[in-house]
């Protein structure tokens, strides 16, 4: 049964109902799933603690809702179409039955290695179908997966292994990305000098040489050999943890966002079907990596729960040439295409030539996620990819929200460039001013909050519940605070303006300024640093670092490169500052706070009207910084 909305009036009607009778509304949606035991209460909530429970006492397994619930009708339909990095390599297609059997076999492998319900398993893998198999096998046996983006460094990986006390790491020998062959197992080995796990399972992808530690490391293909293609799913409570996903915040340490089973299942399927208007037989493609929430909710869980065909791409948009995305769209006759503004801008820079010659007529819906999409990129996407006939769904949401919160429903909600438009049913937005006063009516601008629970919301931050309360539920009483600024225009449409906290969004990836500063400060000659974001043509925001250091005998160029390498080693190449300026001092107030607004202005290229600098300890520092601007 599908809960797809078909008209604007239908959406408006359902939205009203979801607000006036939320429990009845979500119970109806949840009833189309397979529950081992139905819930006793739809919703219990308290935003002060916070303590939120959806479908209390409900028992289920999310993979039974992907497989058993649908196998009679979907068994031979493709679940995952995999397109490799190199267009000359043959891809793979896994039907629902084949995927089911792989998941069961790997679930049995995990069990044979002593992994049990509630254990944490790190997945550090490239974009191969086995990465999805790994996630689903964990869910099958009730283990909690935590996918770590395979571009993160050994030290970032070790921190995550330690934070969640993982029992196993699932990985690969290497990873193909563009024309590069990247070591993956070697990074795991390095991380395990610092952290420790009982078991490492290695999927062979590139065939490159790896070292295997006796009694700890095993080959994936050897372990699955001979395993049964059946596995009795673990019965989970609706509120049992499904996964942990680490994300950056305004403090230095990444936090483990926790999602639970029942609510996440209900919301990801519902939002997937409605936003993308998926019809049976469509080919849907989301270009995200499974290391991010978009990959979790809209490559794996949402589409598979909806019985969709989800295309998974291993490579990058520009290899072997900038026509690669469009060649894949033509080859697989993709109907819904979901990507990030940074990819659109990067491809836009190559002009329309790489697009020409490909048949993109299969496309029905275009999606955008990860950062605000600027109007120019929106129009380019709409005109040159969608040929003016595909609605663009600009989807606003977060790791913490689990699913899409604000977005047009494709073909239903009239769109407006750069606007995420209207909230999905069940999502009660609220705009507040700096004092937490709700700004009602249209034509207002402020901080975006959500005032009522939704099924796929964050439940806690792993191992530190108070951090969850402080970060999201304490800024504005009784509300979830998103960290984003927003405008509601005269039509009541929402436009996301970007982060209002110390989080930078680089190519759709979240980076805490403190996290990058901590990494920079690891360089032995660095005394202090301050990091801000600045507008970047392709990445949306770039990273600008102001660094005080002891130059010793280094040239500035050498030192800058060393600092970049340090950040790359500690977090990963995505966190490497775009610009590093060596400064004699930082603009600090008498109370020792760095005045970041000045640093942001200079990074943006503004050198006049610095505003009130009277509270600065040494206002002269500002002039020195302006003069040395990069
Ligand atoms: C899904 C995802 C979340 C932050 C979020 C916001 C920005 C995401 C956006 C958008 C404007 C959109 N963001 N989608 N800003 N328009 N359509 O990206 O999750 O990695 O946790 O990032 O990304 O600033 O707060 P995550």
Mean pLDDT: 96
> What gap, in angstroms, lies between the N and C termini?
57 Å
Please summarize the sheet with the most strands.
Answer: 7 strands, mixed
> What is the strand content?
15-25%
Fraction of residues in helices?
25-40%
> How many structural domains does the protein architecture include?
2
- Ligands bound to this protein structure: ligand 6R9
Nearest-angstrom radius of gyration?
A: 24 Å
* Strand line-up of the largest beta sheet: 5-4-17-16-18-19-20
CATH topology of the largest domain: Rossmann fold
CATH superfamily of the largest domain: ANL, N-terminal domain
Number of strands: 30
What attributes characterize this protein structure?
630 residues; alpha/beta; Rossmann fold; GMP Synthetase, Chain A, domain 3; seven-stranded mixed β-sheet; 30 strands; 24% strand; globular; binds ligand 6R9
